[in-house]
Design a protein that fits this description.
Pfam families: Peptidase_M23. This is M23 family metallopeptidase. GO terms for molecular function: metalloendopeptidase activity. With 296 residues, the protein is α+β, with helices and mostly antiparallel strands. The protein folds into two domains: 2-44 and 84-135, no CATH class; 154-295, Glucose Permease (Domain IIA). Helix content is 31%, strand content 21%. The protein is built from eight helices and twelve strands. Helix 2 (14-30) crosses helix 7 (119-135) and helix 6 packs across helix 7 (119-135). The longest helix has 17 residues, at 14-30. The chain is elongated and about 70 Å long. The mean pLDDT is 94.
Length: 296
Amino acid sequence: MSMYLQFQDYIVPWYYLAAIDQYERNIQDVRKDIPKRDSTVAIQFSKEYWAGAMNPVPDDTSPFTIKYFGGLGLDGNGDGLASADDDEDVLFTMSNYLSKFGPSEEDFKIALWEYYQSEMVVKQILSIAKMYKHFNSIDLDTHVFPVPVRGYNYSYRGTWGANRGWGGRRIHEGTDIFAGYSTPVVSTSYGIIEVMGWNEFGGWRVGIRDNHNTYHYYAHLAYFNKGLKVGDIVEPGTLLGGVGSTGYGKEGTSGKFPPHLHYGMYKFNGRTEWAFDPYPSLVQWEKYSKQLLKKK
């Protein structure tokens, strides 16, 4: 955070730099084709971008020759070097790039599009920036269990990969948490609501994107929290709705299976999105939620 604050200005607020850095860190964690930058800051530029495409020295650190060959790498700490391995130089270079586009959010969108050439990436980084700005913090990693761990009966087990027959041959991409009708369903994470409405498979469902490029899917709900809408920011424990048995048909279909919450998790890696087993995370979050109750 101190580094983001160091390189922000009236055109480029800290949460823009933090959001880009977090996005880069996220994809480095899940992409084998991208080297993981072993430093505090995860942002990394290509050698061509930093030193210049025609520069005969791809690892050039001289601000003079970098500029001569059209490179964009800059000296951010006044040591006379423009090093792609120096966090201060990297953040200063990114801040300088963004500042050329202007101070508005629309300017930021254009800057991101020019740099990443992907609408999905632009959307993800904007979401992270919106969360950081709203909470005025980058510490948004707390998670809780999606139903109350006290006062309601529930059960779940690992059902990842089980066969599903309705709607064609497919596998179960999530964990079913069985509970009584209208048992509260809460957000497990910080995030922004991307989807809220009917799906023939999931019934009434909510989709939330967090700051780790993870999409959280809550399905088969009986009702929604009427105070929420698409675009709203949520935090761990925010009421989303209640457990139901909706889905497997046209809008309003219910009762084709016992009431339960289908909880799924999907990861975006900058190119594609895929489902992964949420069960290990749910076990951890259940334990954490129970510990919180003991402290109260």
